[in-house]
């Protein structure tokens, strides 16, 4: 069968449209720590909003404290304003129940709370299905700032 010029054009247009949809789906959604879709283990977490940088976070120093976030998407980034050297903060991360190891949430070279967020952990190229990120305290403190 021989395709006419018009039908080839229609085909290309359709492909382009699909491509655009895929790009639009790959948009970042920023989830702040006070977002109700984040589940915090009860009674363990404190909300902090008086950092000089204007940052906010949820933090805990309680043994066993955890937080969990369920999302549908292809990537996730965990961003925090790192704690300075004298505050050992860390979390054990689990994605869909699989351990991602211990993630350090402080900067030993800093002498004050960081002004800007740092992505301390991320996963990309996930299947576009529902995923659950769980973080559990693994050091003296844990902090949750922003999820993208
Ligand atoms: C989403 O955010 C991450 C982390 O800031 C960034 O690396 C990535 O390029 C962003 N992706 C899009 C599609 O904006």
UniProtKB/TrEMBL annotation:
Keywords of this entry: Signal
Domain of life (superkingdom): Eukaryota
Residues making up the signal peptide according to the UniProt record: 1-26
Gene3D superfamilies from the UniProt entry: Galactose-binding domain-like
Name this protein carries in UniProt: Uncharacterized protein
Organism: Dendrothele bispora (strain CBS 962.96)
């Amino acid at each position: 069968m021989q395709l006419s010029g018009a039908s080839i054009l229609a085909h290309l247009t359709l492909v382009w449209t699909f491509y655009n949809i895929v790009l639009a789906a790959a948009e970042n959604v920023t989830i702040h720590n006070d977002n109700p879709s984040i589940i915090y283990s009860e009674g363990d977490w404190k909300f902090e909003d008086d950092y000089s940088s204007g940052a906010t976070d949820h933090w805990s120093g309680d043994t066993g404290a955890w937080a969990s976030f369920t999302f549908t998407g292809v990537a996730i980034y965990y961003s925090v304003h790192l704690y300075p050297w004298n505050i050992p903060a860390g979390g054990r991360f689990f994605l869909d129940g699989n351990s991602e190891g211990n993630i350090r949430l402080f900067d030993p070279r800093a002498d004050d709370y960081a002004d800007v967020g740092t992505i301390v952990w991320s996963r990309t190229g996930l299947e576009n299905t529902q995923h659950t990120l769980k973080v559990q305290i693994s050091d003296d403190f844990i902090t949750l700032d922003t999820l993208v």
